[in-house]
Amino acid sequence: MRSSTIEPGLLNVFRWYVAIRLSLLAIVAWSNQQNPDPTNPRFPEVGIVFFGIMMIMLLWPRLQRMMGRAYLPVLLVLASIAPIAESAANVEGRLDAGMSINDALADYWIPFFLLFVPLLLIAWQYRYRAVVVFAVGTTLLDMGSILPLVETETTNVAELTALIVARGLLFLFVGLVVVKLSKAGKEARRSLAVHSTTLEHLATSRERNRLARELHDTLAHSLSGIAVQLEAVKTLWDEDPTQARTMLDQALRDARSGLGEARRAIQTLRASPLEDLGLAAAMAELGETVAARNGIQVTTTIGDKLGDLDPELENVVYRIADEALTNVSRHASAATATVDLRRKSGKVKLRVSDDGVGFDVAAPAPDGHIGIAGMRERAEMVGGSLEISSGDHGTTVAFEVSPWK
Asked: Are strands 385-391 and 347-354 parallel, antiparallel or unpaired?
């Protein structure tokens, strides 16, 4: 056996096959009782016994648990024997009724089609050697049950022998095709399961990275700004207490604002200013907030032809601008910065520039600094591109993407 696990849906197919055949045999038996036809007698009793046993087995769930691995093989053996035994009983009964051999064999084609059902089930569930056993076994059983009944007619014996052998060879060929198709289908299902698991792991990894970016863009930024303000408060506390208290109050407000934004980011993983204000207003507020916190002059320009953008794309634009301005305030020692967002040549283009000290773009980022990597990941998520250029006279972050809304 290939597997002791029964293929999904296989027993349902088996039940329908047995139920239909048993119903037809019951109709024949009823017809024989109501309107017997002496010119065309039919003997369905053997078939009713075999298919009745199979129907009981298929409708008795506990029996499957009791028989275990032997359950399906026993059903398939019964399904392989039943058409042949039914056909032999029918031929023998007709011969006993005085019919000629040719008339007695008039329905001999029926087992040919009935045996295709167990053949397909065996080929689908088991390996090809099981198909060989089925083909050889049904061929020998058919020859042993039918040929003795017609042994007085040499012509019929030769024709029947050739027909039975040809049927066995056809079963071998059909079984081989079904086995290969079954193997290909199962391999495809296994590959799909592996692919699905890989995608699930990849999605989990991406979600973790996204969460890390969101926390970095909210909580880390807020704490960084508060730390800078508290350092300034510490410096001014003795020299200018009034200014120090003003900056301390601002730090408290920023702390509360950052805490609220971090909570919203964790809950929704979306930029809350975008939900409240829209992209243009959120970008303007972002520039004003960075300017107020860090004493940098920030000029924000939003093109009037920007249009409606997909919420995911708006989130990416906002977060890249936020990260770029945060880097300006923390590392650039800049006096001015500009934010320019517009739609041009069918693309949404964002540029964040400053007049700071610049840095080596090719140098690896220090440990714990994931801001630039996060910007690049966000750009790739929406099919955009991100370029960073820097020198002695400042840094420029340029992001562009073809909008899909």
From this structure: unpaired
Q: What's the pLDDT tens digit per position in 252-302?
A: 877 777 776 666 565 555 445 677 778 888 899 889 988 888 888 999 999
395 SS3 class = strand
Domain boundary among 198, 233, 267: 198
Please name the residue that has the structure tokens 């989990």. 204
What are the φ/ψ torsions at residue 94 (nearest 5 degrees)? -70, -40
What 83-86 contacts at long range (C-beta under 8 Å, 24+ apart), as own/partner pairs, is: 83/47, 83/110, 83/111, 83/114, 83/115, 84/111, 84/115, 84/138, 84/141, 84/142, 84/145, 85/46, 85/47, 85/50, 85/145, 86/25, 86/44, 86/46, 86/47, 86/50, 86/111
Domain of 344, in residue numbers: 278-405
- Cut 0.85: pTM above it: no
Report the distance separating Cα 237 and Cα 234, nearest Å: 5
Residue 250 located in a structural domain: no
